[in-house]
Structure formats: C-alpha cells, structure tokens
Amino acid sequence: MAQLNSKIPSGPLADKWRKHKTEIKLVNPANKRKYKIIVVGAGLAGASASATLAELGYQVETFVFHDSPRRAHSIAAQGGVNAAKNYQNDGDSVHRLFYDTIKGGDYRARESNVHRLAEVSVNIIDQCVAQGVPFAREYGGLLANRSFGGAQVSRTFYARGQTGQQLLLGAYSALSKMVGQGAVKLHVNAEMLDLVIVDGQAKGIIVRDLVSGAITRHAADAVILGTGGYGNVFNLSTYARGSNVTAAWRAYKRGACFANPCYTQIHPTCIPVSGEYQSKLTLMSESLRNDGRIWVPKKAEDCKKNPSDIAEADRDYFLERLYPSFGNLAPRDVSSRAAKRMCDENRGVGPTGLGVYLDFAEAIQRYGKQAAGRANLSNPSAEKIIELGEAAVKERYGNLFDIYHEITNESAYKQPMRIYPAVHYTMGGLWVDYNLMSNVPGLFVLGEANFSDHGANRLGASALMQGLADGYFVVPYTIGDYLAGIKPGSCPSADAPEFKAAEQYIRDFTNRLLSAKGTEPVNYYHKKLGKIMWDYCGMARTKEGLEKALVEIPKLRAEFWANVNVPGSGDTLNQALERAGRLADFIELGELMCRDALTREESCGGHFREEYQYPDGECKRDDEKFAHVAAWEFQGEGKTPLRNVEPLNYEFTKMSVRSYK
Amino acid sequence: MVAHQVSEKNISVTIRVWRQAGPGAPGKFVDYPAKDLNPNMSFLEMLDVINDGLERQGQDPIAFAHDCREGICGTCSLVINGKPHGPNKAIASCQTYMRSFADGETIIVEPYRATPFPVVKDLITDRSAFDKIQQAGGFISVRTGSPCDANATPIPKEDADLAMDAAQCIGCGACVAACKNASAMLFVSAKVSQLGLLPQGQPERDSRVLNMVAKMDELGFGNCTNQYECSAACPKTISHDFIARMNRDYLKASFRQAFRAKSDAVAGGA
After folding, report:
1. Per residue in A559-585, pLDDT tens?
2. Most CB within 10 Å of its CB: which of A156, A368, B14, B44?
3. Domains of chain B
4. Mean pLDDT by 10 residues, chain B (270 residues)
5. Is B23 touching A (CB cutoff 8 A)?
6. What CATH architecture does domain A496-647 belong to?
7. What is the ipTM metric for this complex?
8. What is the DSSP string of A102-154?
9. What class is the A268-423 domain?
10. Is B11 on the interface with A (CB under 8 A)?
11. Looking at CA atoms only, how far is residue A220 from chain B in angstroms?
C-alpha cells in the first residue's frame, strides 16, 4: 500500500509556505550543476520549471512531443490569469483568492496548497510583465482586470482573448534563452513512453522520437512531469487533439498514485456539437459571461423560433434567476448543470436542442449608450448606438466572435451565440505531496497533470495561475529538498538493467500495437470510448450507469486490441501508431475514472451523482464519508486497483454548503 | 435572421495530396475522393475521414501537422490550392471549413515549400529554425523571482496594444511559405517589435535585433523585397509595418554597435 504523506508544514495557514521555504534543505550553488533533472512537457508548468531550474544551475533536459515547445495546449487558454493583486481596490486579498478557490473546489482541495497558490499568484504577474507579456492596460498605463466565475472581485489579468498564448510564449522565451545558452537540452518530437524506477526512485524515462521512431533511454536525478490533463478520454473536448494521458498513465503503472480521476470539468460555454465527424469542441471564453446573458425560452414550444422573435417576457435568464448574487458568473460546474437541466426540460435551442443562448444585445446597448455619452452625441439614433456598442464589444471579445463566426457561420453581434457545456479540464491527476512530489520519490508532477489545487472544480483563470505557480515558484524550491538528500553524481547510468528492461517493455508494447492488423481505425475506438464516458461519466453520473460503463469499457478494450488496424512500421513517423498508444492508455484510464466516480458516493464540484442532490438539483456532499482524496494505486494488469485515502483536514476554513445564490 | 444561412447540402470533392515518405524521398501527388461531406466539417476533419478510410485498409494515412484545431498553436501548416492556410483570410488551416469549397472541386494540398523548412513526411515540415531564431535573442533576460511590482512601470495603452498586435504571432511559418524569398522577416519582426515596444525590452533591444537577424540569415531564410505576401497569408494578420520597424531598429543598432564607447572593465574584482 502506498504511503501518502502529504508533508503539510505545521503552523498557521498563512505562514506555512514561508516557514517551509526556510526549513527545507538547499543545494549548494556549486553542486546544482552536478544534478540532472528531466522535465517532460513544455506547457506553462514544464517550460517555466525548465527555465527556472536551469537559471538556478541544474542540468535540465526537456522533452516535448510537439515539434516545438511553443505548441503546448496552455496556448489555447483564452480568458485570463487570477492574481490577488487588489489593483482594483475592490477588497481582494490573498485570503479571498484562497477562500474563493477552496470554495470553488467544493472543499475537496488541500488548504495548504491552495493558500500557497494564492500567495505566489502576485509574483506570477510581476514575472510575466517583466518578460514582456503584453497584458491589457488602462489608459493610464496600469494593468487592467476583469471578473471570472466564482469571484466577486476583478482579479483576472488578461491579454485580449489569448492570455494562455501570451503567458506560454513568455515561458517559452525564458526557456528559449536557456536553450540558447546551452543550459537546457531540448528534445522535440520526443514522446515519453515510460518512467524508469531504480531502487524505488524515479531516475529516468524511455522516449520515442516521433520522427525517426528511435526508442531511447534517459537517466536523471529526478523527473518532472508537466504533461497536462486527460480530457481527451471523452474524445470530444476543448483539448488539443494531441493532448494525452500517456506520460502520467505510464507513471501510474510504475507505482505513482492517480488521485481523484473522476473530477472533470465541463465548461458551460462551448460551441455545440454539429455532426458525427466532429473532432474537436471549441470554447467560448468564460470572460464572455462578464457581458453576455445566458437564457432559454420559457416555453418549450418557442425553442425553434428565431430568438429575436421571442419576447423579453418569454425568456428565462436562468442563471440570473437561480443564482442572483453571482448571476451569469456562477462557477463552471454550477452553470453547466443548470444548462443541462434546461435542455432536459426540452427548453434547449439550436438544431439538436442541446444548446442555450449567450446574448450580447443588452451589452451592445449599454456600451453603445456609454460611448455615445463620451462622444457627446445628443439624441443618437438606435443604429448609432448599436454601431458604437458593437465596436465596444468587438474591442473586448472580437477574436472570440470571429472564432464563433468561422465555426458556425453566424454573427454573434446580430444574434445570440448558441453554447453548450463541453469537457474542458481535469482536476484529477497524479497524487503529489506539498512539495509536488508523487508517492514515487524523485517524481514531481506540476500543473494540470497533478491533482492538488482545484479540488472537485476549478475556477476560471486558475489553471494558468497554477501551472505557472508550480513551475516558477514552487518546484524550484521543493526539488532542492529531495536532491539535497542524494549524493551528487549518483545518477544511475542509462545502461542500468532497469532502463534496458523498460526499453524492452516499450519495444514490445509498440510491436504489439503494430501487429494489430484488424479492420477498424484508431479513431473508431476513440469515438466509442468517448461516447461511453460522456453518457455514463459525464455531467451526470449514476450507480447504474457507471456499473454499465465498467462492463462496456473492458469489452471495448478487448475489441480494440483484437480489431484495430495500425498501419506502417515503428521506425518512421507514424501518426496512427502515436494515436493507438495514447488511446490504449485512455481506455484504461476511462475504466479507472468510472471506478472512482462509482466509489465516490456523493456529489461535489464537477462530480455529480444523480443520487446525491438537493431538491433544487445542487450537489450534495458527504463530508463525513468523503472529505478525502482518493488516490488509486496500480496493482498489476487485470487486477482491481487499490483505493488509498488521504483525509482532507480543514483547519482554517469551515466546510459548508457551497452556495452562489 | 435565420440560424443557418449556409446551404446544408453535402458536397463531394477530390483531394490531390502531396505524399512523400521522408526528407530525401521523392514525392508525388495522389488523388483521394472525399464524398458526401457536411459543409460545416473542418478541412482537417475531412482529412481525418480520408485517413480513417486508409487505415481501415491498412494503408499509410496522410501525415499532417495539427494539434489545437482552434487556430492558436500554430502547428497546422497546409498549403491549400497554392495558398498557405487556404483560401480564407486571417485564419489557420484548421479553421478552414468545407463550406469554402465548391461541390466537385479538386483541392490541391501541399506542404510548405521553403528551403529552411524541409519536408519531414507528406504535409509535415521541420520548422525548428524558428525556435533557433528565438533562442538567439527572442526574450527579455529576467531571472525568475527578480522583477519589481507589475504596476511599477506604467506602459501607455497604445504601446501595450501595439506590442500585443505583434505578440499574436503563432509561429506557424505561413509567412515564410508565402514569400518567394522564403523570408522570415515578418516572424522575426513581430518578436523584435513586441519586446522593443515595451520598456522592459530596452536593455537588450540592440543585441536582440542584431542576433535574431544574424541567426535568421544563417539559417537560410531570404530577404524581404516588400511584396507583403507574408502579412496577406498571416492567420493573425500581423502587419508588415513591423518589418519596417525592425529594419529601423537594425540600422540603429548596427550604428550604435559600431560607434559605441566601450568600457575597459573586466569581470571579477573584489
């Protein structure tokens, strides 16, 4: 049974991190260059960690499966990054950000980790501005902010609708500088396929070069995974097509515990599915809910009507009605479920009936009138107000409206957007302690790949914050505590028997995939898996459904291995082989997710079990039985994994019913 | 106002694709029929469907680069009917929809054609040269943890907005593919301008432009002859004005470097 020691420092919450930093061991500057660290992934977490560790003097080798470290899916984050700067003088503080995040996670995150996240959030903004990230600014030259869900202050910093891109390019520039200096050895088109354990510690990885097909062994003193989330288990999601769970899953199969895999985030504002061929769902940033109003017709018979023909009195602005104090900025899980309930009541809109309106007409009027006032126009015409209002909305959200238009061929200036919830983020991930180290010593896990900070639901603009906090400001300190306990220069050789055995295992695995010459392509099985997961482990879960999924997924797995067709060979660029390997892992993960969802007999955050709800449809937690982290431990192929438990002790916050009413 | 202005009638097209097994191998065009396509399908989804069919028959699927499929990661890089990223302005290949094509059309799909971007396989090219240019100077040297408060230096909104215009570059390389000289000037000037417009970027402004341009030349990218095919092909509509800005910076930096007073100080000391 795995030892889950969270290593939370003692003392008052607000002092824990400061105290911990002064107490953990340091590595002498002259010794740092004697330690080698492998970083897998170059999204926000991986790139920021690689750059910072190299600045400190460690030997860093960074591996990315993309053709460049600038491509990771952090780049697609639109809305913003939270920080408790209180630049708006609206009463924000580290404590408020901490509290909002803990409450937003439905009291299923560690208090100590979340407080640290809130503390370092302010350093992130300083760091990014210094790197040249062009955040939005006010006319006076100071930084601008906007609001995101689950908060009653404006603490979100943004760079138009491309905040993730700008933050990632900032981290990429820091990484590029260190690569240029020779301080980071960068491997692109390099996919991690296994973790190598020597004497119970993570000491290296096995990598396949996606262009040449070469499989190689790499040894180090410690391994860091910043490999992102696993939402593509649902096939259709807002993730990039290449996003995968393989690195994290192979680490799980080498002994790292996988925590809370069932906690998935379904984002309320995505463009609805339009057809069977679909490969990808596109997000419309939560920031749109600052100005857009979400509604459905009050009467089911109005759903097929043109929205402009539905009178104001016949519209149900359901988030404003149900959650008056947060309105359209209710958190994602709450908003998504509310949208689903409306569609379940047959009040959904669009060709499939699976959609709700996100309407900017009121915002266009409001901004138009303001602009007319500023321009001293007396008696502006209705057309003039709309023109000015559309210009103001365009300045704020223009690129999102453009994306919407490209996909749907509709103008959201002229008619409301149609949106529907879609899989967007996974709060679960590899279990880590306060130092971000997994239960396998020497294996550190950062960003979305770990489970630590968002509990059962992540608030908007908190993913960027966490990725950068882990990479810039946490792991560079905490990894020293581990390395200081290892003799410099004791890194094993990549020719050690453990490495050779792991390499052989991967060669055999690859050959097994390539020898599958059945009748169906990989995508066929990915679609099937996605449908099972969405139907039974999606927005609403039941005991019956999850039990059904636990029968269907193993059947699908057997069918996949027996009947998939992976053409070509392993010694060249082979995208079918890449997809097949990743899907094999997704199928196994899907089973674990359903098992986790079945065992967690309560509703919390993104995990909604229909059996456990209040009469108004809100989540009913069971703090007595489930105020804990479930960390699953692999027990061998075909064996039921072991469910370890880390209790969540709320010393400083009162666990209460989460209300946004 | 109707929900769908476009015709929902399905279309059929022929895809004429460049197939090339590897960097040194000879390549050729191969035709694939794509029938009964929903016009709301993306171009890449159409390729997915063709590839599913090929895989079903045990044939090598068409290799193409793609990832986010929402126009921001810069991975997709198709030349469709002779145009990098296809017929529509200001979008990436992944945001091209089949409604942009006529029923019965033959659509030619090629990889980028530029010496610094060699073909890896089929429609995939090696664009690592862009990373090398970034590594030569596309950054502000700021150690983690050392900066002052983010609001300590106010930056005029106009400057921040212009820097953001330049910063939107997704590093896809369409500018190079569109240029008859395979010039990377738009890409390099976007980064040089973003950082050069901001106060934080001033200390390294000269060395940045000199080093990035030198690396660009060394890697075999051509020069700019002011045809502006680059900005026309750019999915983020980055303006060629940034090239002029970079040239100005380059000239100033070259003079300053030539005539700069140099200190005799050496490193070390007490």
Report:
1. 999 999 999 999 999 999 999 999 999
2. A156
3. 11-121 (3.10.20.30), 128-259 (1.10.1060.10)
4. 54 98 96 95 97 96 97 98 96 96 98 97 98 98 95 97 98 98 98 98 98 98 97 98 98 94 68
5. no
6. Up-down Bundle (1.20)
7. 0.96
8. HHHTTT-S-HHHHHHHHHHHHHHHHHHHHHT----B-TTSSBP-B--TT-SS-
9. alpha beta
10. no
11. 23
